[in-house]
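Worked example 2:
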Amino acid sequence: MAAFDRSEWIPLGKSWKDVLKSVRKVCSSDLAIPDAITSQILPEAMISIHALLDFSLPRPSPVTSAPPDTSLFFSKYSPSTVDGLTITRLRHLGPRHAAWLDGYISVKYAHIPGDTVWNAVADIRGNIRNPWVTCRDWVKNQLGNRRKPDLRKYATDITRLLGILPWNTLKRGLSDASPIHSLSRFLGTRWLSSTDINDMVEMLSERIAADPDLAGAVRVEMVEFTARLTTAFRQRESVDYHEAQGMRWLRVLGEDIFGNGERLITVAPLSDYNNEKHWVTIEVDRAETLFHYGDSLKDDVPASLCQVYEWWMSQHTVSPIGRGTLPTSTQTDGRSCGMLAANAAVRAVYPTTPFMQQENIAAERLKMFSSLANYILDRIADEEAEDLGLGSV
């Protein structure tokens, strides 16, 4: 293979959108910021969330209508030794512009779009740090609540956890191994996403698995289950449910539920059935061949959703299918359905669990964040112990 020749691309006035992927990789390599420099101007991955909030990130310059002098940002010479003055300049980033095609082969000040410090700063500021700042302010407000001492206690615990949790790690031990900053949605009043619901469902599933009286008798499925079931229902005329390989997982699950007398519990979004951004709880009870539906808004089950589940149940039983109501707390706002639906799922398994009250949602959010955070920290500690050989006999 012929060696790559930069002169075939620069500086010939080519357009960046026409550049081959392989050539873009060369550009990224030329203009990448060395790790030793990046570590001085970006936060280390394992510092705490509190430390991230206190970290002095570079401040991008405001966008101006006048084009910048490219020579201020790029050099046509290979990089020289980076001194303290250069580091200081990097802490105040200028506008980002592509210049590699014009013959610039090293970064002097600002950076082109791609895997650069500029983009890393923008991502950390907008997608990670800003939400955590909002969370910190919300937790501070809970600390100042004089009427609810329990709320202050939970908020104090969260403040401690924010000083321990690494800001740039995955949610260790959870099936949804998304970045840990997704947990920030619990600390505030934001609507909970499928990621958050799945985290709570998985905690319930682990609790069931550790209970010898319930393991093998109750199945808890993630929020994606209802979507897969809906797809199977919509394809029922063209895809044989009992033969198609793509339906095997649903078939096996159905056989477990209806063949072994198990119960199935899940939390489902209503967006596919009535265009509402709302979470509900569903239980399929084989013992009584019942479809149970729980809605914190106390609305009836959408006919299309009920049809999906009853179709699936009918593939595994010839018994008449009945309907029932799953007890839930009453929702009085537009954003607490996720917490209340998860509570209804827990109560379906552990009936003595108290109903989650609307006025205590803030405390329940704090408690759930604490449970998830401690779960993740335990997994991090286990991994570190294993790396050190402390877990071996």
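The chain has two domains: 6-124, 192-369. Confidence is low (pLDDT under 50) at residues 108-115.
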